[in-house]
Write a structure and sequence with these properties.
Blueprint: E1 2-9, E2 14-17, H1 21-25, E3 33-39, E4 45-48, E5 53-60, E6 65-67, E7 72-73, H2 75-79, E8 82-87, E9 92-100, E10 103-106, E11 111-113, E12 115-120, E13 125-134, E14 141-153, E15 156-168, E16 178-182, E17 185-189, H3 204-222, H4 234-243, H5 263-266, H6 274-282, H7 288-296, H8 300-310, E18 327-328, E19 331-332, E20 336-339, E21 344-347, H9 352-368, H10 370-374
Parallel strand pairs: 3-12
Antiparallel strand pairs: 1-2, 1-13, 3-8, 4-5, 5-6, 6-7, 8-9, 9-10, 10-11, 13-14, 14-15, 16-17, 18-19, 20-21
Length: 375
């Protein structure tokens, strides 16, 4: 059984694994929580330590700043980075002066204890707890985040609890669900997690923990643990592995092979050697060094096909390009496709410059040679 939780540590400014069983297992509504907002140079605003709130600036001169409430500040008061704790009983902000574990002390010498939710002052959704749980091996794996939806008005800061989670079953190939929890009312929608507008990034520690469990579950089902090399990070890495556990980055080439039909049929979910399929589709028998380059960067296939198309024969001149994963000149690599009828790499959409660019490359190759073109 897996049951892990992660909390934000204000002192180290990082997410860490939670060891308090109460914080791990209890519903978020039943756990003491503390909302801390990072205030840094908010335009036309300043934090007032007298009124304990953010006040609008109505007048500025060389010597001072004046707020709408008539408070006067030095310019340094506006730009100073501050961590402001919201006290719901007093309905105002207090500056954090000390943080140690779950305990926080503010400038009013008040002490607060609980799970910390930390975000920018302008954030609308702030995470308080991440969880990963699985009842048994091969059972669905759940990754969840409890967060507060923040609303600000003249009466203070209001928040309500929500929850996003993804449930993954490698035994059943895939299951992605977004579940919204608001004020004890549950609504379930069958929505792919990648489309959920959470605006919340997965902390690296949660990502790594999830991948460890994914790999172990895949091993339990298929008998071996995949070696995962991927350019995806965070939520994208999680969802890419769910879609293709043995080759997450194959998704990067979905657009490139659009003319070949159903991508999921051509590159099956549990295929362990997509490179062999690619070579068969493109009718190529490249040097072994391309396989290694492909493992590190799947766009190496596109580079190889382009150079072949232009007439470059020596793969050694191509090698340094195999590491590039964004653009060729001004053209994004993920906008290139292999046009099956003509057996050529072309740019999707309308681009009057692509043909001119190709013509230029071929001209350089013909008149200057392979080495000059690839330098």
């Amino acid at each position: 059984m897996v049951n892990r939780a992660f909390r934000y540590d204000l002192n180290s400014a990082a997410w860490i694994e939670c060891t308090d069983e109460n914080f791990i297992n209890a519903d978020i509504e039943k756990i003491p929580t503390v909302l801390v907002l990072n205030y840094f140079d908010l335009p036309y605003s300043v934090y007032c330590p007298v009124h304990h709130f953010i006040e609008k600036i109505v007048e500025e001169n060389d010597s001072e700043i004046i707020s709408a409430e008539g408070c006067k500040f030095q310019d340094s008061d506006r730009v100073m980075d501050k961590k402001l704790l919201y006290c719901p009983t007093k309905k105002y902000l207090e500056e954090v002066i000390l943080a140690d574990g779950n305990e926080i002390i503010t400038d009013t010498f008040s002490k607060f204890t609980g799970l910390v939710g930390f975000g920018k002052y302008t954030d609308e959704r702030i995470p308080f707890r991440w969880r990963i749980f699985q009842s048994s091996v091969k059972a669905p794996i759940n990754i969840a985040v409890d967060f507060a939806e923040i609303k600000r008005d003249n009466s203070g800061i209001r928040s309500r609890w929500e929850n996003f989670f993804i449930a993954v079953s490698f035994a059943k190939k895939i299951s992605a669900i977004k579940r919204i929890k608001t004020d004890h009312l549950y609504v379930i929608k069958s929505v792919n997690w990648t489309e959920a507008e959470t605006e919340i990034e997965i902390p690296e520690i949660v990502e790594n923990a999830a991948m460890e469990i994914f790999l172990e579950d895949t091993k339990a089902i298929y008998g071996f643990k995949p070696t995962v090399i991927t350019k995806f990070k965070g939520k994208e890495k999680i969802t890419a592995y769910i879609k293709r556990p043995f080759d997450p980055d194959i998704i990067l080439l979905k657009h490139f092979f659009v003319h070949f039909g159903d991508f999921d049929r051509i590159f099956p979910y549990d295929c362990t050697d997509n490179y062999k399929i690619i070579c068969r589709l493109l009718k190529i028998n490249p040097p072994k060094s391309l396989r290694k380059a492909y493992a590190e960067n799947h766009y190496a296939i596109i580079w190889y096909m382009l150079f072949r198309q232009w007439g470059v024969k020596d793969i050694n001149f191509m090698q340094k390009f195999f590491r590039i994963d964004d653009n060729i000149a001004i053209f994004p690599l993920d906008e290139l496709i292999f046009h099956a009828p003509t057996k050529k790499v072309v740019k999707s959409g309308i681009s009057p410059y692509w043909n001119a660019f190709e013509h230029f490359c071929k001209f350089i190759l013909k008149n200057k040679g392979e080495k000059f073109l690839t330098n």
